[in-house]
């Protein structure tokens, strides 16, 4: 599925949790959601970076955001529960999650990756999004229109050599998303989808493509419409889908 129609951009009255909001795609999604009226909950590891995004939203006149610093590579169910409780205590509701947090390491062959590397990549890029969503589910279910959006990777379809550390956790996340969509079918006001951003000038690309400064690679803002469409009213009724944010761009 691809985004090829204008999206309804009014997110007024919604509370959206954006993970990885301190930079890259997460920051772009958070700023855009706030500009369209959403109360945004900013997640990230770096408190100073989160504070900077918080200030950007306030300076632009968006609804007052909230910030949840948390390291997904070490977080437990207790940490996720405490974070979500703080959100609900501060804002009182939750209408969506944009899972933009990512952990990327230097491209490495399967035989060269030790267990600790696999675990870091799996925790942030696969397990943490599912764990956080599970904790948020009771609050999402009472929203009149709730949406969860995961982030995948364009190399899922043609992984090739050296990409297993990036693609394997995201492939597992895609399978979980598709299962969730079917399991949530009994909740008509709850949906789950995923976005493949494609090749954008993100912090992750700087690691996987060091030295690439091609002017043809779009900025991270180019993929924001895909997230906003799925999070907002235009995404209602769409579930279990993988959206190519930039279908014409090579990864």
Question: Would you kindly provide a written description of the structure presented here, covering whatever features stand out?
Answer:
- This protein has 251 residues and is of the alpha/beta class.
- It has helices at residues 24-35, 47-59, 77-91, 115-141, 164-183, 203-208, 224-231; strands spanning 15-19, 39-44, 66-69, 96-99, 146-151, 190-196, 242-244.
- A seven-stranded parallel β-sheet has the order 3-2-1-4-5-6-7, with helices on both faces.
- Helix 3 packs parallel to helix 4 and helix 4 (115-141) packs parallel to helix 5 (164-183).
- The radius of gyration is 17 Å and the shape is globular.
- The two termini are 17 Å apart.
- 42% of the residues are buried.
Q: Give, in order, the helices and strands.
A: EHEHEHEHEHEHHE
Outline: globular
Full CATH superfamily name: NAD(P)-binding Rossmann-like Domain
Total helical segments: 7
Largest sheet: 7 strands, parallel
Number of strands: 7
Stretches where pLDDT is under 50 for at least 5 consecutive residues are 1-7
CATH class assignment: Alpha Beta
Radius of gyration: 17 Å
Domain count: the total is 1
How does CATH name the architecture?
Answer: 3-Layer(aba) Sandwich
Instruction: Briefly note the CATH topology name.
Output: Rossmann fold
Strand order of the largest sheet: 3-2-1-4-5-6-7
Helix content: 40-55%
Q: What value does the average pLDDT take?
A: 91
Structural class: alpha/beta
What proportion of the residues form beta strands (DSSP E)?
Answer: 5-15%
How far apart are the termini? 17 Å
């Amino acid at each position: 599925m691809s985004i090829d129609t204008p999206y309804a951009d009014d997110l007024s009255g919604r509370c959206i949790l954006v993970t990885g909001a301190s930079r890259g795609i997460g920051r772009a999604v958070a700023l855009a959601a706030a500009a369209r009226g959403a109360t945004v909950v900013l997640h990230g590891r770096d408190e100073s970076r989160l504070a900077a995004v918080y200030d950007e939203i306030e300076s632009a006149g968006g609804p007052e955001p909230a910030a949840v610093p948390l390291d997904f590579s070490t977080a437990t169910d207790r940490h996720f529960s405490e974070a979500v409780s703080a959100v609900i205590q501060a804002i009182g509701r939750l209408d969506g999650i944009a899972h933009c947090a990512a952990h990327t390491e230097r491209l490495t062959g399967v035989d060269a990756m030790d267990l600790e590397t696999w675990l870091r990549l799996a925790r942030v890029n696969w397990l943490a999004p599912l764990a956080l969503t599970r904790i948020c589910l009771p609050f999402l279910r009472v929203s009149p229109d709730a949406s969860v959006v995961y982030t995948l990777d364009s190399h899922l379809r043609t992984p090739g050599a050296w990409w297993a550390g990036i693609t394997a956790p995201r492939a597992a996340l895609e399978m979980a998303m598709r299962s969730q969509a079917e399991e949530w079918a009994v909740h008509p006001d709850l949906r789950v989808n995923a976005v493949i951003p494609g090749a954008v000038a993100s912090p992750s690309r700087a690691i996987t493509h060091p030295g690439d400064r091609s002017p043809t690679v779009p900025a991270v803002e180019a993929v924001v419409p895909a997230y906003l469409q799925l999070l907002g009213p235009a995404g209602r009724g769409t579930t279990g889908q993988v959206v190519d944010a930039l279908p014409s761009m090579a990864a």
